[in-house]
Amino acid sequence: MNNFIQKIIKRPKLFQRFTGITVLQFRNLSKRMLSLWKKAEKKRLSRNDRKRKIGGGRKYFLRTINEKLFFILFYYRHYPTQEVLGFIFRLDQSSVSRLIYRIMPLIEKAADPELKNFLEKAKSERENNALLNWEKFIKKFPDLIHAITDATENRCLRPKDKKEQKKYYSGKKKAHTLKTQITVARSSKILDVSSTYPGSIHDKKIIDKEKTIDKIPKKTAQYLDLGYQGVSKDYPNHYIIIPPKKPKNGALSNLGKELKKIQSKRRVLVEHVFGKIKRYKICSDKYRGSRNQFNQIFRGIASIHNFTLGTF
């Protein structure tokens, strides 16, 4: 398998189609993954209930970190069934499942370890440093000049339980879905990823539960769509920009139409980011796995997106 990866690396365009990242980005991400994998494996093999000594048992067929990283990126990018993935990588289905389970938690830590606590870190900096004015703060956190927040829905399998079916049914998509919210900077960097909620949950309820507005500075221009009506009233001291709503049985004025057009040009950036995330078919095709694992997958791909924005 390692020989196969070396052959693909010699064809950069094909390699990027297979994994979603460039060869150089892959090599850098692999270096970050190596220490995390070794640490995770040492912890797993040193557990109290393990009967074998460290070094005992079967070895991974995909031995190098390059092979394991290529394996998980290929899975995210193309989203074959585990049986098909096993056939491609010459693994049985149970080995595929175990390897996916062990690699998934490491992706976010390797690609963008700051994503999880970025907004909390910025908030703590503001609260703990009373002498830090806005200009100095923005120099330290330039991505917080503007922020665009929106949610996306991913189709999932219909739950067997009737109550669960109702909870996950999205009236907007006319399907059972999982909903995740992100906050994006003007640089296209993802600043925050919410928990994943059932498709029936309204966008406004998610932003309230996540306390997203509280995490963002009051002077940051926060662009939201019409799904977040009422947020401005809840946070009158924050700089929140929501497009004007067409009055019932009426029409928007020319000024209202122009404002809506300008604001849409700003907010479309978050749609572009969603588009890049959904190049990984696991986030665009109907999700077949455990609903509890989807958020970890989404966060991992969001972290890979941020990683690809860096200069290497």
What does this structure look like?
By secondary structure, the protein is α/β, with parallel strands linked by helices. The protein is built from 14 helices and 6 strands. The chain folds into 2 domains: 2-111, no CATH class; 115-308, no CATH class. 51% of the residues lie in helices and 12% in strands. Strands 1, 2, 3, 4, 5 and 6 form a 6-stranded mixed sheet that branches. Strand 2 (169-170) and strand 3 (175-184) form a beta hairpin. The mean pLDDT is 90.
Indicate the topology.
Blueprint: H1 2-9, H2 12-19, H3 23-45, H4 65-78, H5 82-89, H6 93-111, H7 118-128, H8 134-140, E1 146-155, H9 162-168, E2 169-170, E3 175-184, E4 190-198, H10 203-210, H11 212-215, E5 221-223, H12 231-234, E6 240-241, H13 254-277, H14 294-308
Parallel strand pairs: 1-5, 5-6
Antiparallel strand pairs: 1-3, 2-3, 3-4
